[in-house]
Write the structure tokens for this entry.
Amino acid sequence: MGSSTGPRGPALRPALVLASRSPQRRAILAQLGIPYEVVVPGFEEEPDGDPVAHALGKARSVDGNGRPVLGVDTVVACEGRLFGKPASAAEAEAMLEALSGTTHEVVSGLCLRTTAWQELHRETTRVRFRRLTPRDLAHYVAAGEWRGRAGAYAIQGLGASLVERIEGDYANVVGLPVAALVRLLAARFPGTYGFG
């Protein structure tokens, strides 16, 4: 288990404990000015598991020491199939080929908890890919951006070139459903983090 610390706010703003390895989630929290500390979760994800259950498992596997704990998990769903993180370039190419010319859903589970309560939420964003040629697929897979990405792409990088249209929370596709998190922080900690 490792930990690292993100930007700190005023003393009255307790750092969220982020139960995630994701650099994208850290970057989004920093962008929002939310102080956080990363603690790698001691939770094993199940292949094709429910992202809300995974978010809960991650959040419960970490001791917040009195601070709020945030767990998040994201999957890509298309035509009844779930696409997690590919294990190889060949698997990444197969995922991208399956998503080519279709509309898929990026589904995130979010768990925010303290010792007194927990909130669970599901956020869905619809993403339409343009039709990808074999050259498109080879170029994207060779770039290596698929590594560690649900659905084998990163919309905030070269993966933007694959996308034709998006409906919903863009940040959710990057890896953290910001609208849901801000609503929760505003309701549970009004004013503490600058929301509500």
Residues 89-99 form the longest helix (11 residues).
